[in-house]
Structures are given as C-alpha cells and as structure tokens.
C-alpha cells in the first residue's frame, strides 16, 4: 500500500501507564510491607539502608532468575526482555517509595515523575542493559523532590545498576531535543513509570507538535547517516562470523533505527500501526516481528551466558546458545553452524526491511534525495529510458522498473535488472528492490536454463567494472541463491573457525572483488606477479568462474574441493562453456588449496615440492591461473590474513614450479632470481664495499634469497654485520608488525639440533605464542631464525618492551645461563574462544615429499607453547630438524618438520615412525 494513500493514523496517541498492564513482576506490596517492618524494628539509619538494599537486591535477583529460567525452558526472547523491563519497573517504584518515605523523609512525600527513555522506554531490557531514566520536573521543581531523586539514585547504584539519568523540566527537554538528535531519539520511546501523568502527557504532546511534526526529513537523514557510521565501526559486512548482535549490520540496532524513523515520520506508537500507515504489508510486518524475536532471544541468552552486557556473538558462546535454541547437528552441518546460518539469514531479512522502509519514505518524500541531486538544487531529474532494456528506467539516478509487472511479464528481467545496474554503475531503486523480493518465486528451473539469463549472469560475473557489488546486490535480494541453487546452499553459511572472517557466500563474493582489483591494477604493489599474469592468461572467464565457485560445496559431508569440481561440471555448460573449459574450471576448484598449502607448509628449496605441484598443474597456463586464484582466495579470507611473506612464498613456489614445467628452462630462472635479490639488497646497502657485500652474499644459501622479503634481508645484513664487528656469535633483534598483529624476534646463534626447541621453549616461558617462523642456516654454521609471536599490547612502546623481554629470555636460555624448567612461566594468555573448538590431532610421516628428509606433519588445536613441546619431543627422539614450517589457521596449527636422524638419514623404520607419532600425539594429550 502506498504511504500517500495510507489511512489516517492517530497523531498523538495516549501513552499507557505501563507497558505491562497485565503483569506484576515483583510483589511490590509485600516488599514495601517488609521495608516498613524493617524501619520500625531498626533505629540505625545506616543499618536500615543496608538491609533495605539487601531486600531489594534479593527481589531483583529472583525476578531476573525467573526470567532466565523461563527463557532457558524454551521461552521467547521478547517475553524475557519484557519481563526484565517489568521487574525493573516494579523495582523502581519500590525504590522510589523507599527513598521518599524513609531515606529522604524531609521531602514530605514529594516525588519526581519517573520516565523510562531509550531502550528501557520500549519496555524491553536485555539482562545487562543500562537503565535510562528521565526525572521530569514541573517548571518550578521542589527542592524536596530533587532530594528524593538523589536518594533513589544512590539506592540504584548500591544495587550495582548502570543508570543513565537526567533531571529536566518539559521546556528543558524540548530545548535539549532541538539541539541533540540523541535526546530526540530517547524521547521517541519515553514511557511513564511513576508520577504525574498530566506532566508526562504535556511533554509528549509538545514534543510531537513542536519538534516531531516539523523535523522528519532532518531526523531521517541523521539516523540513516548514524546507521552507516555505526555499521562501519562494527564491521561493514553483516556476514562477519563473530557478529555484533546489537550494533552490527542486520542487528537489533538496525531494527530499532527502522522503528525510530517510522515512529517519527508516521507518528505511530505501536509497531503494528506500520501496516495501517502503509509502510509494511502484513507479511512484511510478520517478518519484522520474527527478526526481532530471534535477535532478542539470542541477545538475552548472550547476556546471561556472559554475565554482563556482551554484544559480540563470539565463538565460545555460539555453541551453547545454539544448543539452548534447540539446533542439532545434521546433514553435514554442526549445530552451531546451523544456528549461525539462521542468524545470518535473519540479518539479511533485516536488510530487506531497511530497503522497504527507505522505499516507503522516498515515496512519502521524507527520505532526502541522493547527494548528486542536491548538487543541482534538489531538482528531481526526469526519468529516462534505457535503450536496450525497455522494461527499466533511470529515476533519480537509480535503476527502476517501468511497470510493476516487469518481472511477471519477463522473468529474465530479474537478472537483467542487476546487469543494467552494474553496466550503468548505478544503484537500484528501493521500489525495484522490493519488487524483486516479492518476485523470487519466478526464478525457477525454466529461468535457470534460459540462455539469455545465463549470458547476462556471466557478463555480470566477469565484468571489468564492479562485479563484487553486483553479486552482493543479487545475493542480498535473494536472486543469486535461487538462480545458482548450489550457491543458495552456502548463503549465510559460517565456517566455525577462527581463521575465516566471513560466511562462505560473502567470502566467495569478496574473492571475485579481489580478482577484479588485481585485474584493474589496484593491487600491483602487493601482488605484482598476479597483477602481471592476469593480463597474459588465455582463460579469463574460467578464472572468474573458478574463483566464484571454489568453496561452493562447503558444508557437505564430502571433500568440498572435489564436490565443488562436480558442481562446476554441471553449472558451466549451462553458462555456455565448452567441455574443455568446463574441465579447466573443475580442475582449478579441485586443487584450489594445493598451492597455498605447499607454499606455507613445504620446503620450497626442496626440488620435490615444485615437482609435486607441476605434476598437478601440468601446464604453465594452469599454474598462472592457480597462482591468481590462490591469491584472491587468501586475500578474501579477512583483514590481516594476507601478508608480504605469504606473497613471497607463493612467488617462490611459482618460479620453482615454472622451471619444472618448462623442462628446466624458465623465463626467470632460479639463478637469475637469486642474483636479482642480491642486487636489490646491494642497492639498499650503499655504505658497504663490494668485497664486503660479496663475502656476505656467499654466507646465504639460495633458499634464503628466494624466501625472505627485501626489507627483512636489509635488517639481517645490518644485524650480522654488527655481530661480526663485535665478535659476537649470539644476537637477537625485535620488530613489530601492527598490520599482521605479530611481533618478529630474529635470533642468530650457532646452529645445533636443539636450537629451535630452545627458542620455542624460551618464548613459551615468556608467555609468547609462536604463530610463524622462518628458519635458515648460513654457510658458516650460524642459524638465522625469525620467530613471529602474537601481539599482546596495542601501544607500540609496550609491545617493544615485551618483545625485548622475550629476546632476553631467548639469549639467556641459549647461553645456558638458565634452564627452561627454572624459568617461571609467565601466565599464558588465554583466548576463551579457543575452548570452543575440538580438533582431532593428526601426525603424518612421509618419505616421498623430500629426497633428503622425512617430513613429519602435525596438525591440531593451537595453544601457547605447542611449538616448544613439539620441537622438544623431536629433539628427545634424537631427530635433527632441517627446516620447520609453522602455519596457523585461526585455532588450528599445521606444522611441518623436515627431519633426519643424527646420521643424516631418513626415518625408514616403522617402529621409529610409530614412536614419533606416539610422542607427538602425547603433546596434544592423546595417549596411544
């Protein structure tokens, strides 16, 4: 129903005395009688006050506990919030009686008018919410009433309540509201708790007439801008795997904002009145209520579990809440993953409701016109036709439908709308977006097989403009999941892992965005090789499809890489690909993790590594495609996951493998790359003589030059030069990396079999958690190891002091000044989220990966001190560690050790291999 044609609504509805007229949360009469008896029996004012507060605390605890038990027994979230609000109402009335009659007796019974505002004014409280109060005074307030307010506040503070309060007259309220949008917002939801109803009605009437009736466009603009800033602070995506239930995109605050805006514009008091106002259809309002109910249910449980006002749905509470809500594990998805998928679908529904409200406001002409229209004097541009899409028009610089039956007449328009918007670089009009959500049932098997629809979709996906934006719009509207049903299965699907920052669908869309940025040259400095190769490949469309589909089979009981390849084999012919190109896409998806795993977990100087990757890739074109796909995948995981070191590892692996695929010849062979790295370092050391530099360059094996980034090579050169000048054989150096959230500790010491174990043990004793390591040996027998530990402090100077303590600990340990078991371990920092994960530890031993070494790969739940224990166990087994590759995927550690026995031989004995497995599994607490 159009907002213009909506029936008249009551302009100034009378506020009820209580939001809970049918309920009495606390037995106020009994409590007051108990207080009166206490006062009669107690002459000591201090003792009376303490006992009175204890009586109120007991009543409050019982009321809150009753709400919690009802919720955990299957109760509704709204009911819990309303019960807690009713408990607070009754507590306030009793506390007011206590203050007026006994704590401030000189007041003569004078009492303020107590008004609940803000969230409390809605008559809904989460367990840890603040209590926002307005003490409304007449124009000439009696000093006695102010003393009652003071006494009341002290009682509330004694009850450890978080109270936000203000004492104002009606005129003062209106003056403040004119100047402050936040106060205006709190007054929208003002509710009388106790006191002068006539005074409260005066405030309501004047606020409506003098402010609300005159400032609707201003309020709407401010609230929408405030929402954008809030969402930006909380994380722009609504698909963060640890979302903020209150402040995040698609959370409760978004629903509150919608209601504030509509109450302000349409001046309704009850959300149900939004149907009569034409904002929501009955079905849309039912969706509003379902979203609100779900989010309140989650938020109340979250507060009860945390014991405080915690709004972030972190990993450690997700599973308990999922189980409280009755989710179970089935169809290959854990209970927690099914719960979180529901959460994200609700967050998406909140986004749909936001679009609906914006459309209604625009039709009412309350929502400001777009910024670019204001630049031409707020003159609305006349709609203009679109030549090759006659069912659409451009209105106020947004794409809209010409007629409301556009999707009914031609369902292909459900895809064409997004194609037009992407091609034109224009947003979609809210009216068209709302019509799309109402027409989703028209996306059926017939449309999915339509050649034109598939052609348009492929053009959207492979666009050189903004495919990420277009795909996200399609996903938000529900179109993408219906048009590509396999994609629909991962919409809102979270990966219960600290490594992944987004849901699967959001990750895939972001990966396409990264690929587009690489192609557009926007990431040249960070990924130079991919930025170069993407313009040399012959299968651009296949690359975009592989990136879009690489995780599409997540959440199934089978290997998602292989199952995803099967999905591609069915989908690509529908999109017009030939059998050969379809198979190319499938192969990329099937092996999309291989290059990343090899780069981070294998010795890149070992020829077998490149040979293994070459056997999978088979052609240099496929290797280039895989490199670019891998980069896009890692960069789309989340902030801080990609870094220069991973880029260097991937480039090194690429060049090593290219040599193999080229039959021993490469466009840039190994020797040339080593020489180029040395020349780069030479230019960065202008104060060195040529003989000095040549001697220094000979100290490093080729693997060093291929693996270490130039900035760290410069630091290493300075450190080794200083050591030689001072005749030292042991030195440490520390640097911080704010972007990655790690601190690097470089150690130079004489190499020996137990060196890494000693370093790891010293780090653990200092409370440092190792997350990565680079390990090298110089030609003159020095170990050059860089250990990366988790950052502990935000301030740079604090973190540097901590890192220097860690380095000092390492030096003392390696000099033999202390034994590790003599160092008092620092209290290990605990990440409570890690306790939410259970990872079965695994140990694999492989003699085929390397010609010289046995590779021992260990995976399991990461923890502080894990590397110390693993390397210590290997040392005690008389194994020599040639290289170590430490990778952390969130809560999961995957460590690979290249080892030999003390004679330099591989570990071939089955008995010895079994002993290694038993010892390393014991480090995870597994006895076998």
Automatic annotation (TrEMBL):
Keyword hit for DNA-binding: no
The HD domain, residue ranges: 504-626
Region described as Uridylyltransferase: 1-385
Catalysis: reaction(s): [protein-PII]-L-tyrosine + UTP = [protein-PII]-uridylyl-L-tyrosine + diphosphate; [protein-PII]-uridylyl-L-tyrosine + H2O = [protein-PII]-L-tyrosine + UMP + H(+)
CDD domains: ACT_ACR-UUR-like_2, ACT_UUR-like_1, HDc, NT_GlnE_GlnD_like
Region (Disordered) residue spans: 1-24
EC number: 2.7.7.59, 3.1.4.-
Cross-referenced PROSITE patterns: ACT, HD
Entry comment, domain topic: Has four distinct domains: an N-terminal nucleotidyltransferase (NT) domain responsible for UTase activity, a central HD domain that encodes UR activity, and two C-terminal ACT domains that seem to have a role in glutamine sensing.
Function, as annotated: Modifies, by uridylylation and deuridylylation, the PII regulatory proteins (GlnB and homologs), in response to the nitrogen status of the cell that GlnD senses through the glutamine level. Under low glutamine levels, catalyzes the conversion of the PII proteins and UTP to PII-UMP and PPi, while under higher glutamine levels, GlnD hydrolyzes PII-UMP to PII and UMP (deuridylylation). Thus, controls uridylylation state and activity of the PII proteins, and plays an important role in the regulation of nitrogen metabolism.
NCBIfam families assigned: PRK05092.1 (NF003467), UTase_glnD (TIGR01693)
PANTHER family: BIFUNCTIONAL URIDYLYLTRANSFERASE/URIDYLYL-REMOVING ENZYME (PTHR47320), BIFUNCTIONAL URIDYLYLTRANSFERASE_URIDYLYL-REMOVING ENZYME (PTHR47320:SF1)
Protein name: Bifunctional uridylyltransferase/uridylyl-removing enzyme
Organism this protein belongs to: Roseiarcus fermentans
Phylogenetic placement of the source organism: Bacteria, Pseudomonadati, Pseudomonadota, Alphaproteobacteria, Hyphomicrobiales
């Amino acid at each position: 129903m159009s907002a213009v044609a909506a029936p008249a609504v009551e302009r100034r509805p009378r506020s009820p005395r209580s939001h809970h007229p049918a309920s009495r949360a606390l037995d106020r009469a009994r409590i007051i009688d108990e207080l009166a008896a206490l006062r009669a029996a107690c002459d000591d004012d201090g003792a009376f006050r303490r006992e009175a507060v204890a009586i109120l605390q007991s009543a409050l605890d019982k009321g809150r506990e009753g709400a919690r038990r009802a919720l955990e027994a299957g109760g509704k979230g709204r009911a819990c919030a309303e019960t807690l609000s009713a408990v607070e109402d009754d507590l306030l009335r009793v506390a007011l009686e206590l203050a007026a009659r006994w704590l401030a007796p000189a007041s003569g019974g004078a009492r303020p008018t107590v008004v609940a505002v803000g969230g409390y004014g809605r008559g809904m409280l989460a367990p840890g919410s603040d209590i926002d109060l307005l003490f409304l005074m007449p124009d000439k307030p009696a000093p006695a009433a102010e003393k009652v307010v003071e006494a009341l506040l002290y009682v509330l503070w004694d009850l450890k309540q978080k109270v936000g309060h203000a004492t104002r007259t009606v005129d003062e309220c209106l003056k403040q509201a004119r100047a402050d949008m936040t106060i205006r917002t709190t007054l929208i939801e003002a509710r009388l708790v106790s006191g002068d109803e006539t005074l409260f009605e005066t405030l309501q009437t004047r606020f409506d007439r003098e402010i609300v009736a005159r400032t609707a466009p201003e309020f709407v603009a401010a609230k929408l801008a405030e929402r954008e800033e809030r969402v930006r602070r909380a994380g722009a995506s609504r698909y963060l795997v640890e979302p903020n239930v209150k402040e995040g995109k698609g959370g409760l605050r978004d629903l509150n904002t919608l209601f504030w805006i509509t109450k302000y514009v349409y001046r309704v008091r009850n959300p149900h009145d939004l149907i009569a106002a034409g904002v929501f259809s009955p079905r849309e309002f039912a969706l509003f209520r379902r979203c609100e109910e779900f989010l309140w249910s989650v938020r109340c449980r979250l507060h009860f579990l945390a014991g405080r006002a915690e709004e972030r749905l972190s990993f450690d509470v997700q599973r308990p809440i999922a189980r409280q809500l009755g989710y179970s594990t089935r169809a290959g998805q854990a209970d927690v993953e099914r719960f979180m998928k529901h959460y994200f679908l609700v967050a998406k529904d909140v986004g749909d409701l936001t679009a609906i409200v914006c459309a209604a406001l625009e039709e009412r002409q309350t929502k400001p016109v777009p910024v670019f229209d204001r630049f031409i004097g707020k003159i609305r541009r006349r709609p203009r036709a679109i030549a090759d899409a006659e069912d659409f028009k451009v209105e106020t610089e947004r794409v809209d439908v010409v007629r409301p039956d556009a999707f009914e007449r031609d369902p292909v328009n459900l895809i064409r709308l997004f194609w037009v918007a992407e091609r034109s670089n224009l947003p979609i009009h809210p009216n068209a977006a709302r019509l799309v959500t109402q027409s989703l049932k028209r996306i059926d098997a017939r449309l999915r097989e339509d050649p034109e629809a598939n052609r348009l979709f492929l053009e959207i996906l492979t666009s050189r403009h903004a495919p990420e934006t277009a795909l996200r719009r399609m996903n938000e509207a529900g179109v993408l999941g219906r048009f590509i049903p396999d994609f629909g299965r991962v919409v809102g699907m979270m990966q219960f892992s600290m490594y992944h920052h987004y849901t699967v669908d959001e990750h895939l869309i972001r990966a396409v965005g990264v690929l587009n940025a690489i192609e557009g040259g926007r990431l040249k400095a960070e990924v130079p090789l991919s930025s170069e190769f993407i313009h040399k490949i012959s299968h651009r469309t296949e690359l975009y499809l592989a990136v879009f589909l690489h995780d599409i089979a997540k959440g199934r009981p089978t290997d998602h890489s292989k199952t995803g390849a099967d999905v591609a084999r069915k989908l690509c012919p529908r999109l017009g690909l030939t059998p050969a190109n379809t198979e190319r896409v499938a192969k990329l998806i099937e092996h999309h993790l291989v290059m990343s795993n090899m780069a981070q977990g294998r010795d890149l100087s070992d020829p077998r590594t490149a040979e293994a990757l070459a056997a999978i890739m088979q052609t240099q074109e496929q290797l280039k495609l895989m490199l670019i796909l891998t980069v896009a995948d890692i960069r789309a995981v989340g902030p801080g996951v990609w870094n220069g070191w991973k880029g260097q590892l991937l480039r090194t692996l690429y060049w090593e493998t290219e040599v193999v695929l080229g039959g021993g010849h490469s466009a840039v062979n190994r020797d040339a790359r080593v020489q180029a790295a040395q020349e780069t370092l030479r230019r960065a050391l202008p104060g060195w003589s040529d003989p000095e530099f040549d001697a220094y360059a000979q100290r490093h094996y080729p693997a060093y030059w291929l693996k270490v980034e130039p900035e760290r090579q410069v630091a290493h050169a300075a450190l080794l030069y200083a050591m030689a000048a001072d005749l030292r054989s042991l030195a440490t150096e520390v640097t911080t990396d704010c972007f990655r959230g790690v601190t690097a500790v470089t150690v130079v010491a004489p190499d020996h079999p137990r060196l890494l174990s000693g370093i790891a043990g010293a780090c653990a004793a200092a409370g440092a958690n190792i997350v990565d390591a680079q390990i090298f040996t110089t030609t003159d027998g020095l170990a050059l190891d860089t250990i990366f530990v988790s950052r502990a402090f935000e301030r740079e100077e604090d973190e540097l002091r901590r890192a220097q303590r860690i380095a000092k600990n390492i030096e003392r340990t390696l000099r033999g000044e202390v034994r590790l078991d003599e160092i008092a371990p620092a209290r290990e920092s605990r990440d409570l989220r890690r306790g939410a994960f259970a990872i079965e530890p695994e140990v694999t031993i492989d003699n085929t990966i390397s010609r010289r070494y046995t590779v021992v790969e260990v995976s399991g739940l990461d923890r502080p001190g894990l590397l110390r224990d693993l390397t210590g166990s290997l040392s005690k087994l008389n194994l020599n560690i040639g290289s170590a590759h430490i990778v952390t995927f969130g809560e999961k550690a995957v460590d690979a050790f290249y080892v030999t026995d003390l004679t330099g031989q591989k570990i071939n004995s089955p008995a010895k291999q079994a002993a290694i497995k038993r010892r390393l599994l014991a480090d995870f607490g597994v006895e076998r």
